[in-house]
Design the sequence.
């Protein structure tokens, strides 16, 4: 029983991170029908910005918790700005072009950011200082849950709930949903579609930056190719939940984390990924548009 | 012509080494160095040359061997097979008793049959299995074979620490799986108990699912054969999950970042590796490194400088103990030593000329991130 609860929390922690990153893929896809392959790299950029903030303003000690909050603010601001810049430079000029051109541009942007991180920071593993946050461990029914895990799970759920409320219960959220259904019709209704797209490139990367910085704080090591690893998992989470569907990305992320934990735990660690992805294929065979997907996925 | 050069070198040496001129009457015992003095491995090659010259000088200051001075002949093989063969012929013509080097297996291999035919002892850090294939009596490998790490690791875990429930963890790389398989096989041959073999995806960071499962099996040691960035996370996540087992890591876990990534959880981790020259725990090794530092104002470039120095020391010991420079007698002595106290740990040579007894040590990571050698004990 202790092992089961432990695996559940293991899965929820990474699942929360996957979900935060997956939201960026799904929102951009929902509005633009574009897979933003540079998204994973933007998220890890957040981790590096946070790390630089923490190390240059002296983390650790009693300043720890406050420093971490400031680091999150800095990471979110920088990555959101990078997201807007990315849209302006790499995607807006291609909006009327062939869909394949935008995909190539996205892949190029991914490499640009990844290698940029390598040049600015380091090709080696960068390490977060220890003692930033309390190291309290909670013991629940034989499972050990750390403070950081609780924080990651709680913050990701709060952020996801906030995003859900924003998109479904505010005027601007309605505009985002309208633009997702039909950009031309939305424009005719007086919605500034460019602003909607820009906002999607603010919200997605901002949430991703939080996810990326969680990775850094939880595991305490970041390296420049990590964006690809996490981006791939989050992208799969978005597909699993139904790409373009916001609650779908949340559910997809959490499920992927849980699948992975239980596959490694109860089946076989050497087949962990194979089992996880076989399950995904199974789900997509039954529901080709993902768990919550309504629209039939279009080819990119 | 060759003789002329030889005598002029001897004259130069006589000038360079004070007091040597007085004892120049009996002919010197010649020891060859075949090493990459230039080229990609120049640093290592020069290290071997410097180590051998240092040992020769020390011996000569004690009055040499058998009343004769030691003279060192150096040939630069550039780390290349073709040049190595030329060096071998040149050193044989120079009349050396033994040759120290070369650094690379390839260069040692090209020279090996030439030394064997001339009955000249060859001791090199080369570890290629091809060096053993022909069964030459003149070959003495001074570095441990590639399988030594697994042997040492299993011995340490099963016989020294007496772990009863060992979990082996590896990533999917050929290096780590090869090492893990070898360690597992060696544990079994030592009648140890491997309770589980688990795999992680290198770089995936999230190892808690695998470790949670291991925890339920209640291991007393977790051996990890992969790289430090994953190993440090495994150690940290073991602490987080409350896994009490001792973490034992393979050589790729040795990196300053291991301590940084694992943070406070790093303390108590055991890492198995060949120590750097400065970390060797043996008094003779400390004295050698200090003398090397004093003479050349730099540290030996790698542990292979010291394994080659061990080759030289063994040859000198053989000459002294057999009171002879007869190749057959020296080879017989070297093949039948009960124990040789090397700078890189104690070892002997088997009939194939393979080093038995590895320079590996077990380090324990301390709370401040530094390393402390816990096995074998110094002395």
Sequence:
């Amino acid at each position: 029983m202790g092992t089961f609860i432990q695996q559940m929390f293991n899965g929820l922690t990474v699942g929360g991170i996957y979900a935060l990153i997956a939201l960026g893929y799904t929102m951009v896809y929902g509005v633009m029908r574009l897979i933003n392959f540079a998204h994973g790299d933007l998220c890890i950029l957040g981790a590096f910005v946070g790390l630089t903030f923490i190390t240059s303003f002296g983390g650790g000690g009693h300043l720890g918790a406050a420093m971490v909050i400031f680091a999150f603010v800095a990471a979110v601001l920088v990555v959101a700005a990078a997201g807007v810049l990315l849209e302006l430079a790499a995607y807006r000029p291609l909006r009327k072009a062939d869909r394949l051109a935008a995909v190539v541009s996205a892949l190029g942007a991914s490499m640009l950011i990844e290698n940029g991180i390598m040049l600015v920071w380091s090709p080696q593993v960068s390490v977060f200082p220890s003692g930033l946050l309390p190291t309290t461990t909670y013991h629940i029914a034989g499972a050990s849950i750390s403070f950081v895990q609780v924080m990651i799970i709680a913050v990701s759920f709060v952020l996801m709930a906030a995003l859900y409320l924003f998109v479904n219960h505010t005027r601007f959220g309605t505009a985002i949903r309208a633009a997702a259904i039909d950009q031309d019709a939305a424009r005719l209704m007086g919605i500034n579609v460019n602003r909607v797209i820009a906002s999607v490139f603010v919200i997605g990367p901002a949430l991703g930056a939080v996810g990326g910085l969680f990775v850094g704080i939880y595991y305490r090591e970041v390296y420049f190719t990590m964006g690809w690893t996490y981006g791939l998992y989050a992208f799969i989470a978005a597909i699993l939940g139904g790409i373009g569907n916001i609650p779908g990305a949340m559910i997809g992320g959490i499920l992927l984390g849980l699948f992975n934990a239980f596959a490694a735990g109860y089946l076989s660690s050497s087949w962990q990924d194979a089992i996880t992805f076989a399950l995904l294929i199974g789900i997509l065979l039954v529901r080709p548009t993902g768990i919550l997907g309504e629209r039939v996925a279009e080819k990119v | 012509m060759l003789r002329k050069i030889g005598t002029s070198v001897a004259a130069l040496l006589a000038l360079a080494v004070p007091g040597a001129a007085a004892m120049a009457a009996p002919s010197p015992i010649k020891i060859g160095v075949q090493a990459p003095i230039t080229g990609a491995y120049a640093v290592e090659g020069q290290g071997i040359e410097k180590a051998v010259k240092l040992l020769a000088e020390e011996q000569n200051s004690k009055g040499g061997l058998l009343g004769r001075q030691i003279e060192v002949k150096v040939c630069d093989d550039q780390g290349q097979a073709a040049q190595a063969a030329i060096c071998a012929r040149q050193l044989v013509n120079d009349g050396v008793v033994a040759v120290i080097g070369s650094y690379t297996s390839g260069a040692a291999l090209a020279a090996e049959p030439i030394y064997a035919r001339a009955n000249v002892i060859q001791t090199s850090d080369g570890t290629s299995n091809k060096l053993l294939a022909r069964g030459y009596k003149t070959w003495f490998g001074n570095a441990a074979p590639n399988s030594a790490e697994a042997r040492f690791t299993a011995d340490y875990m099963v016989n020294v620490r007496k772990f009863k429930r060992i979990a082996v963890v590896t990533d999917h790389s050929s290096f780590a799986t090869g090492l893990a398989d070898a360690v597992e096989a060696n544990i079994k041959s030592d009648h140890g108990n491997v309770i589980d073999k688990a795999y992680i995806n290198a770089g995936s960071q999230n190892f808690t699912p695998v470790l949670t499962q291991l925890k339920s099996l209640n291991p007393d040691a977790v051996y990890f054969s992969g790289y430090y960035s994953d190993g440090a996370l495994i150690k940290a996540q073991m602490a987080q999950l409350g896994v009490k087992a001792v973490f034992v890591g393979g050589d790729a876990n040795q990196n300053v970042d291991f301590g940084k990534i694992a943070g406070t959880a790093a303390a108590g981790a055991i890492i198995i590796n060949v120590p750097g020259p400065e970390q060797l725990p043996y008094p003779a090794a400390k004295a050698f490194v200090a003398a090397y530092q004093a003479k050349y104002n730099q540290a030996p470039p790698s542990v292979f400088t010291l394994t080659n120095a061990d080759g030289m020391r063994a040859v000198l010991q053989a000459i002294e103990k057999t009171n002879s420079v007869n190749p057959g007698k020296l080879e017989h002595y070297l093949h039948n030593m009960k124990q040789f106290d090397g700078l890189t740990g104690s070892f002997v040579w088997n009939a194939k000329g393979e080093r038995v007894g590895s320079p590996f040590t077990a380090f324990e990571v301390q709370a401040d991130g530094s390393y402390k050698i816990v096995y074998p004990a110094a002395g």
About this structure: The domain at 1-286 of chain A is CATH 1.10.3470 (ABC transporter involved in vitamin B12 uptake, BtuC).
